[in-house]
Write a structure and sequence with these properties.
The complex is a heterodimer. Chain A is built from nine helices and 67 strands. Chain A is mainly beta. Chain B is built from 30 helices and no strands. In chain B, helix 3 runs antiparallel to helix 4, helix 12 runs parallel beside helix 14 and helix 20 runs parallel beside helix 22. The radius of gyration of chain B is 33 Å and the shape is flat. The chains are: A mainly beta, B mainly alpha.
Chain lengths: 997, 492
């Protein structure tokens, strides 16, 4: 993905401005030690292009697509509090014709976008920090290198600067082995860095460098497994890095000082240990002649020498000079010497001895070969001689042409047939002479067809071209016949070739295929190949967190997907990549995303929770349906942890769609919550938030960071994915657990049926059955009365006494209500009610007072606008068993927005006494509290609550009153709203649930 | 160039030898000889044509540029490796030891250890002789530990003592700890001492990212020497990020020395970003000395960004002495965003030492944004050591930014200042263009400045290129006596 040009331009403008504000001579400050490769800012310098910024200077290489080196100056004044940029930037300042590495070019490579000039070294201003995020300042770094030992040394440099030093730093890659990541950026074998430490003082740092100045040079393998290796293990010299790279450092220093600095070793080898001062040189000598290698070394006391050839120590070769005479071919090789004294040792470079004047000689002749027809035959010769040998293979004495291997040491004949059978030899030549090998015979035996390779299963999508291939060998000519289920295919012209193509394949083409191969010697049939033409489900949208954006799978008609994180301190930012998800078997990449987790109950208040969030937006006239989500997760907490997944559909309030436990103690687990599909409205965004929070248990041990990886979302897109969505979002059940005694403790439940059609409802008053479910002090014989206005329209005491008791039992069963025992004293009314408001009153009747449950179920089919829209229950609320509990079930497949209120002080206006002074309303999903409020006007959406109350016809709460309320969007499922008194307060309360549009 | 020819020859021979090895009769391959195949008893292994890879390898070795050479060699060797492992191994054996060898060595063993770990370990044991090569054990044990830490532990028996073993232990422990911290720690702690230190240090360095307090506790009872210092420092650094107050309490308990000082600086800086008063309280607990002074400087860095006036007032009110001088010098560099205010503040300091320290700092810091103004200001200061230091400091930045302008400015200075200034910039100028610098030096009006500049420029040139400098001197139209002085080693 290309960074939007306009935004890039803006960034560049900002950085340019920063340049003026920061330091007018910043660019030259950053390369005080010199220009190691004589880079120039001309467009033709494609492999050595100078980029000078106020924050650093670098030489850029358009071939490797990364910097050759980066140079900058670090002082404590460069380190501030700007934080780390949320974005990387494509460097659009590169000349035309240069490849601009994209910020996504490293995705999926397994390598980090490794800063050379670190982000942490430039944190005085945002602009300074962002300048380090240009891709021209990046190289592919193995995560263990970048996040481990390399990061530690970066930190070390900042620490040195903080201790009153200026640190002049040059850094870069070296030791390429030719590999690149997919986007063509070269992978270096090493990362190196040279830090020159100059105590702060007057004038430029370079003007204060002397031979005594401290130099730290490191060269770190760019590999896995070095994460926790101390950087001290990779100390080297600047001189060694010069050798590795071909650059010249310290060109702005006096030669004597530069020489001294190049040889410095941080932590220093013992003074007096051997050091090679003059390396041996490669030699070339004629056969029979002589050659001399010599070395000069310094070091304390007596130095000893041992010369080796090809890693084999040579006896009697133990002085500074090695002379070889009467040279033969056997003397050719690589020579080096190890110099030792009591303090240590030093090894010279290895140099070659080349013996010239050697005519070609056959070491190993080609040998006769017998192969079956259709296979390959190879003849090889091993020869010695110098200078360079050339080869010419011959067939029956005639030089072979048209075969590229005929002029190499090994001749290969592919698909050998009878005509290839002959004697083969090779003529080997150099400037000294020529030799011909003995001839070797090739025998080709006739062969019936045989199958060399074939797939056993092929899967293809409908409409695509399905291809089946079998590779066979044998005496030519071979003929082919493809069959399906044993029947020869005739209509397809490719059915008589080795490759069968079925364009526009359909499911009818699925089946078992084989290929009959025939020649004059016989016939063979391949093993069956199963072709399966099937709809291949779309790949999930997958984040591997090498970047914040999806790694793959985002359909063309969906945009968004950038994951942001919010930490415990309320900071929201695009996530940054971090460490390897070690120990997680499901890991696909090398990075994962982390966030500090909330301590305490989960809530949605700013600064009160930690989550990852991404938004998906369908294109115009499109909807999207998210049917699945999975992620790997790990929490460092030692106590129980949990996750909660919310969906925010358009402008609706967040809806909890799934929650569950999260592994603690840093154990990675794969989590695949189940939830009903989340379907967006047309062209409307859906935002998913994944919270980490403490689970049940001791919150004090739940301080945690938690990480996720391999986030995957299954989604489909299209038009009209949710026809009838409106009617499919509804309340289907409302219930309240109450305590009854004498009036005014009689519990009263009100509910409203909206629309213009009658609705079948089941109303129940549970008492004795609650006792069987473990609720103590339950009503023994609840009396249920249904009122419309002040008129009782139905009453029941003992559900089995009702005329329609069988229907009541069936309705309870179909609606998911728990069953009343046959003949129990629980009460129920099953009736069809016209739209309007009703109250159901539950009292102790003839039995004892106690705890009861009043329930209202909507048993009708979903019809737009014909909903059970409200339940309110007035009852005594206390603590413990006296908690007033209302249950509600969101039916259908889509989230529902509801207003829930707990009135206490507001009831006084209705001349009720003994009201609950300070109600606290807590909404639970299962056992997990998901929202809490104790004072509606303190809520961030107090205005929305006021408006919603007016819209639904609820009486208004006084401004600033202690009544509680919340507006929430809930996924389909069961919830309980519990009303308790703050502290130990008790009293009469009214809990209400209203459906909202 | 020629010396590389023998390598090409040797590689060619090795590759052909590898092909020959493959041609030897070998047992029928189950894969290549399906049941019932008439080819079952034949030597069906097909030696590859490796001439292209051989030629590429030979050509790569002859490249002079080390970066291009390593790239080409790596590509050629990788291609060979993918075609024929044994041939690649033979080719490796005849490569000259050094960076190129290491490149090929890594490619080969990296490929081998994934499919045949035991052979890779045996080969590494035979071939590893340098630190660069020993890094292959990091790769090995990172892979092994990811697959199965327990199996990885059993493979340690195949690793020789020394750096190879240290690398293996570090990689293994690091991976294991991230997967199963308790198990990894328990294993590391029961190792014999020679293995325990690197293993435990790696484990604790890893754990420090998760639970720095536990690391501090474990490190003090399990490690010593540099490993202890490194581990403690990282743990304090990490703790400082999340809980600087807790880290502050630990600093006095750390072993005295450089590590403790640096830890104090980390804590001071972290505290200062949140609460300056708490940061100042912290350094008040530190004994007077460099740790305290440096810590205050770190606090001032944050403080001056947020409330420069308060920071300036605080420094001005410090007790006179070296601590105030150091703080004044540091704060001056931070206040210089408004040079006039910074200068006024510096002039208001109560002691001469603090004033001079601040003014010298201001000159250099100001010169980083406006070297011309800073230099001009310094040149107007009353003669003396402070003025000289301020002038030469500012000038050094001006030369970086605009050498010609700086040079021209020096030419206009009064004699005394010109002498000092010319001598200070002449080496910088001569570093890039000694001839032009010496020509300029001889144009200076003040005789003392002329001599000082010529001497300084000549000394730098002589250091860099003695022969050329001597030739110039011999031909220069300078007084004999001055020439002789320049020729004297004492003049340089």
């Amino acid at each position: 993905m290309t960074f939007p040009r306009r935004l890039v331009w803006c960034v560049l403008v900002v950085l340019q401005f920063a340049a003026a504000a920061r330091a007018t001579i910043g660019t030259t400050l950053q390369s005080q030690l010199g220009n190691p490769s004589s880079a120039t800012a001309v467009a033709t310098a494609t492999t050595n292009y100078l980029i000078a910024r106020p924050q650093y200077a670098l030489s850029y290489n358009n071939t490797t697509r990364e910097p050759n080196w980066v140079s900058w100056n670090l002082t404590t004044a460069d380190v501030g509090t700007s934080g780390r940029s949320a974005n990387f930037f494509q460097d659009t300042t590169l000349p035309a014709g240069f490849y601009q590495v994209l910020t996504t070019d490293y995705s999926g490579s397994g390598y980090d976008r490794g800063h050379m000039c670190p982000s942490g070294d430039r944190t005085i201003t945002d602009a300074d920090n962002e300048a380090t995020f240009f891709m021209t300042n990046m190289i592919p770094q193995a995560p263990d290198n970048n996040q481990g030992v390399w990061a530690n040394f970066e930190s070390e440099c900042r620490s040195i600067a903080a201790a009153g030093n200026e640190v002049l730093i040059i850094s870069g890659p070296s030791g390429y082995a030719g590999a690149t990541i997919a986007s063509g950026v070269a992978i270096a074998g090493y990362t190196w860095k040279i830090a020159v430490v100059v105590p702060v003082g007057s004038g430029t740092a370079v003007s204060r460098i002397t031979s005594a100045t401290r130099v730290i040079a490191i060269k770190i393998p760019n590999i896995a497994g070095v994460r926790s290796t101390p950087w001290q293990n990779y100390i080297t010299t600047a001189g060694q890095i010069e050798t590795d790279t071909g650059y010249t450092f310290f060109t702005e220093l006096p030669a004597s000082v530069a020489t001294a600095l190049r040889a410095k070793i941080e932590g220093a080898a013992p003074v007096g240990s051997p050091s090679i001062t003059t390396q041996p040189a490669a030699q070339t000598a004629a056969v029979g002649g002589s050659a001399t290698f010599s070395v000069t070394a310094s070091g304390d006391a007596t130095l000893t020498y041992q010369w080796s050839r090809d890693d084999v120590a040579l006896p009697s070769a133990q002085s500074a000079t090695l002379t070889l005479s009467s040279l033969t071919a056997a003397d050719a090789g690589n020579y080096f010497v190890i110099v030792k004294n009591s303090l240590g040792s030093a090894s010279s470079v290895a140099v070659s001895l080349t013996i010239t004047g050697l005519p070609p000689a056959i070491v190993t002749s080609p040998t006769a070969r017998t192969v079956t027809a259709g296979s390959s035959a190879t003849f090889a010769v091993v020869a010695s001689g110098s200078p360079t040998l050339t080869y010419q293979w011959r067939k029956a004495g005639v030089a072979l042409t048209g075969n590229t291997t005929a002029t190499t040491a090994a001749l290969t004949l592919t698909n050998a047939q009878a005509a290839d059978a002959a004697n083969y030899d090779v003529v080997i030549t150099n400037s000294i002479g020529s030799v011909t090998s003995a001839a070797a015979a090739l025998t080709v035996t006739p062969a019936a067809p045989s199958v060399t390779s074939a797939l056993t299963t092929q899967i293809s999508a409908p409409g695509a071209t399905a291809t089946l291939t079998v590779v066979a060998s044998g005496t030519a000519p071979l003929t082919y016949q493809w069959r399906k289920a044993g029947v020869a295919l005739t209509a397809n012209t490719s059915a008589t070739t080795a490759t069968l193509s079925i364009p526009g394949a359909t499911t009818a083409d699925s089946g078992s295929y084989d290929l009959v191969i025939t020649n004059a010697l016989g016939s063979t049939t391949s093993a069956a190949i199963t072709l399966n033409i099937t709809v291949i489900p779309p790949d999930p949208v997958l984040w591997d967190f090498t970047t914040a954006t999806p790694k793959s799978g985002l359909p063309a008609d969906v945009s968004g997907g950038t994951v942001v994180q919010r930490n415990n301190f309320g900071t929201t930012q695009t996530l940054t990549t971090v460490s390897v998800a070690s120990g997680y078997t499901g890991v696909s990449g090398t990075s994962n995303a982390g966030a500090a987790s909330r301590v305490g109950s989960l809530n949605l208040a700013e600064g009160g929770s930690a989550f990852f969030e991404f938004t998906l937006t369908p294109a115009a006239a499109r909807q999207l349906s998210v049917t699945g989500l999975s992620f790997g997760a790990r929490s460092t907490a030692t106590g129980p942890q949990a996750y909660a997944l919310f969906a925010v559909n358009g402008t609706a309030e967040p809806a909890l769609i799934a929650s569950g436990p999260l592994a603690n103690n840093s154990v990675w687990t794969r989590i695949t919550p189940t939830f009903l599909p989340v379907v967006s409205d047309t062209a409307t965004s859906v935002t998913f938030r994944l919270y980490g929070c403490n689970g049940a248990g001791n919150a004090g041990v739940n301080t945690a960071n938690w990480r996720i990886d391999d986030l995957a979302v299954q989604l489909t897109t299209g038009t009209a994915l949710i026809a009838g969505a409106t009617k499919d979002r509804r309340l289907t059940n409302l219930s309240s657990r109450v305590r009854t005694a004498n009036a005014p403790d009689v519990a009263i439940a009100g509910f409203t049926i909206a629309g213009n059609a009658s609705k079948l409802v089941l109303i129940r008053a549970a008492g004795p059955t609650l006792g069987a479910l473990g609720v103590s002090g339950s009503l023994s014989a609840p009396k249920l009365e249904l009122f419309r206005g002040s008129s009782v329209i139905e009453t029941n005491t003992g559900w089995s006494t009702a005329a329609n008791s069988a229907a009541i039992a069936a309705a309870a069963s179909s609606s998911g209500a728990f069953a009343f025992a046959a003949g129990s004293a629980d009460s129920a009314i099953l009736t069809t009610l016209a739209p309007g408001g009703y109250t159901a009153q539950i009292s102790s009747g003839m039995g004892s007072a106690g705890v009861g449950l009043i329930e209202v179920y909507d048993l009708s089919a979903a019809t737009a606008g014909q909903n059970l829209v409200n339940l309110s229950t007035r009852a005594f609320a206390g603590t413990g068993n006296e908690t007033l509990i209302s249950g509600l079930i969101i039916g259908g497949t889509l989230p529902k927005r509801v207003l829930i209120r707990a009135a206490g002080p507001a009831l006084a206006a209705f001349n009720l006494t003994g009201v609950l002074a300070r109600p606290q309303l807590t909404l639970f999903s299962g056992n997990t509290p998901v929202f809490v409020n104790a004072g509606w006007s303190t809520s961030t959406d107090a205005a929305a609550i006021s408006t919603a109350s007016a819209q639904t016809g609820a009486f208004a709460f006084a401004a600033g009153s202690a009544d509680a309320a919340m507006i929430v969007t809930l996924a389909p499922g069961a919830y309980t709203a519990q009303v308790t008194g703050v502290g130990t307060t008790t009293g009469l309360a009214l809990v209400e649930v209203y459906e909202l549009p | 160039m020629k010396r590389r020819g023998i390598f090409a020859l040797l590689i060619a021979a090795a590759l052909v030898a590898a092909a020959a090895l493959l041609l030897r009769p070998s047992p029928p391959s189950a894969v290549l000889s399906p049941p019932g195949s008439a080819a079952g008893s034949m030597a069906v292994v097909r030696p590859a044509d490796l001439s292209a890879e051989h030629a590429a390898l030979a050509a790569a070795i002859q490249l002079a540029d080390p970066r291009a050479r390593s790239r080409a060699l790596g590509q050629a060797f990788q291609a060979l490796l993918e075609r024929d492992f044994e041939a690649a191994l033979l080719a490796l054996r005849v490569l000259p030891r050094g960076a190129d060898y290491d490149t090929a060595f890594f490619l080969l063993l990296d490929a081998l250890h994934r499919r045949d770990p035991d052979r890779a370990l045996a080969l590494a044991r035979e071939r590893v002789t340098t630190r660069e090569q020993a890094a292959i054990y990091n790769v090995f044990f990172d892979t092994f530990a990811r697959e199965n830490p327990v199996t990885a532990v059993s493979r340690l028996a195949l690793v020789p003592a020394g750096l190879a073993r240290e690398n293996a232990l570090r990689a293994l422990t690091s991976v294991w700890l991230r997967a199963d911290a308790p198990a990894a720690l328990a294993w590391a702690q029961q190792l014999p001492p020679v293995d325990r230190t690197p293993a435990l240090e790696s484990a604790l360095l890893e754990l420090a990212h998760i639970d720095p307090l536990q690391v501090i506790e474990l490190a003090q009872t399990s490690l010593s020497g540099p490993a202890l210092e490194r581990t403690l420092f990282l743990a304090v650094q990490k703790l400082t990020l999340t809980d600087p107050a807790a880290a502050a309490a630990l600093v006095p308990l750390l072993p005295a020395g450089d590590m403790q000082t640096r830890a104090a600086l980390e804590v001071a800086r972290a505290l200062a970003t949140k609460n300056t008063a708490a940061a100042l309280d912290f350094i008040a607990q530190l004994p007077p000395g460099s740790a305290s002074t440096l810590a205050l400087n770190n606090i001032l860095t944050s403080w001056a960004a947020a409330a420069p006036a308060a920071a300036a007032q605080y420094v001005a009110a410090l007790l006179p002495g070296p601590a105030q001088d150091a703080a004044a010098a540091h704060l001056a560099t931070l206040l210089v965003l408004e040079p006039a205010n910074a200068l006024a503040w510096a002039q208001s300091l109560s002691t001469a030492a603090a004033r001079e320290a601040a003014l010298v700092s201001i000159a250099s810091a100001w010169a980083q944004t406006d070297p011309a103004s800073a230099t001009r200001w310094a040149s107007t200061q009353p003669a003396g050591a402070t003025a000289t230091t301020a002038l030469t400091g500012a000038l050094s930045y001006w030369v970086l930014a605009d050498a010609v302008a700086a040079r021209d400015f020096v030419a206009l200075l009064p004699a005394a200042a010109q002498t000092v200034a010319a001598a200070s910039i002449a080496p910088q100028l001569a570093q890039r263009d000694p001839v032009a610098t010496l020509a300029w030096a001889q144009t200076l009006a003040a005789p003392a400045a002329r001599e000082a500049a010529v001497a300084a420029a000549y000394a730098r040139w002589f250091d860099n290129a003695a022969a050329a400098a001597r030739i110039w001197l011999d031909a220069a139209h300078l007084p004999i006596e001055f020439k002789n002085r320049l020729r004297s080693p004492a003049a340089r």
